[in-house]
Amino acid sequence: MSNQVPQSLEETEIFQNNSNLVDFFNTACRRHKDGIAFESYDVGMSYSQLSDRANHLASWFSKNANVGDKVAVMMPNMMAYPVIVYGALKAGMTVVNINPLYTKRELEHVLKDSGARILLCWEGAGHVAASADLASVDKVVLTTIGDLLGFKGKIINFVAKRIKKLVPKFSLANTLAFSGVIQEGSKDAFTDIDLPIEHMAFLQYTGGTTGVSKGAVLTHRNIMANVAQCCYACDPKLMEIVDNEQKIGICPLPLYHIFALTAHNFYLFYYGAKNVLITNPRDLKTFVSILQKNKFHFISAVNTLFESLLNNEDFKKLDFSNLVTALAGGMAALPSTAEKWQSVTKSVMMQAYGLTETSPLVSAVSYEESTFSGSIGKSALFTEVEIRDDNDQLLSTGEAGELCVRGPQVMQGYWKTKDSGVDENGWFKTGDIATIDESGNIFIVDRKKDMIIVSGFNVYPNEVEAVVAEHPAVMECGCIGVENEKSEEAVKVFAVLYEGQSLTAEELITFCREKLTAYKVPKHVEFIEELPKTNVGKVLRRELKNLN
Q1: Do 270 and 15 meet the contact criterion of CB atoms below 8 Å apart?
Q2: Which CATH code of 2.60.120.260, 3.40.50.980, 3.20.20.140, 3.40.80.10 fits the domain covering 46-195?
Q3: Residue range 68-83, pLDDT digits in tens
Q4: Cβ distance 402 to 380 under 8 Å?
Q5: What is the C-alpha separation between 454 and 491, in angstroms, rounded?
Q6: Could you tell me the pTM of the whole model?
Q7: pLDDT at 207 over 80
């Protein structure tokens, strides 16, 4: 790929060679046909195998649904996932990703709101599907972790069901097995459909960390634009194949989340990398054992997962000589974590920023940076950013206000809502408070809705959390605002300590007084065993409020 910056999106290699995501997929499979596209439990699937299986599934989809229909996908990282996504896209369908840890209520909301006609569900979430109202769904296809893994898959399924008890009992009538669906689809050849680039590729629901989950409409063009933007944001070494050596990407974040979906399933995939899927990153022993077998070039994670790895002694002993990029996103990366990462791996943690509504990349720190700055970098290629106040007025350099974004990766709008989320000029308000310095570097201050007002002063939880995390006894923490006896807000911190460490609330408050202005210092401290988090690892501050 040329290092010359293109003048338009159409000049990028992605757009010159592909008219939609189906072309995109076919191009990658043709170029890298003998390489391993995805690996799960040490079993690889080549690009050519993935192409064949996606065609088989597309053939089945075309006989059981129509172009434009929604297909819901509810599963963790497993070999079936990329086959399903690319098979659905080839059939002209829209993919609706669903967290496999969703409750009955959450699943019903997404199914009803999206109108999904087909549900492909991991059997470990089958009990939730069985309890839900599936009136809008015509067919349910059950998948297993061992699907497409050969004989080893049978062993994995036995362990998952019988030993680890990951598959609760359930009864769901008229379900189909994924393996049978693939077999059925293989009976007829599939011919690709000519799809416009503005066709809806994903109806990607927001995490719902602050309320009801909304569907962001993302087109083939949105995703392709973001992949092109990733090409110019990330180190070019990730896109080079030297002496037939495949780059290796470690994917511990769920592919149903927009961060991993674009970074791994599209960006790294297109350039011939082997994506190693981690089904359960919380099982650190298994996770690290997989890392030991792969001298990886790329890893993406959220701060809490990076922190967990850094606290693992076996992880510290790994060979990091191939590591090119450690991409932190999804939540603010703490300076203390970044410093430890650089000390252990001798590589700089690269912080990026994005949202479901922006496919997701908005900005990223330059891969040429030698130290962690706390910035989320400069805006991506062909992306405009502005900082505005509550009256929608532009703010000056260095002033904190809401970050607004415009670019080809911005969604078409929210599905079935009066408020599309995008104004008539194409601007999207992120809900994040940020500043921009004279060099164009963006710094996220905090979520607008999470801001705490203490005696008229703004307190941002991210800043307090970063200070608390510096204490050597604190493993992780979360900060919220709570009402005091005067019906005013006060700062409260929930902290999780390292095993074997002891700390009092007063000691932690004293520590904070040395580093924070008085009104930012926590008034309340509570020590807990574990922070409530999303499946991606984001701290759920709303759940902390419930704990309070």
Answers
A1: no
A2: 3.40.50.980
A3: 999 999 999 999 999 9
A4: no
A5: 8
A6: 0.89
A7: no
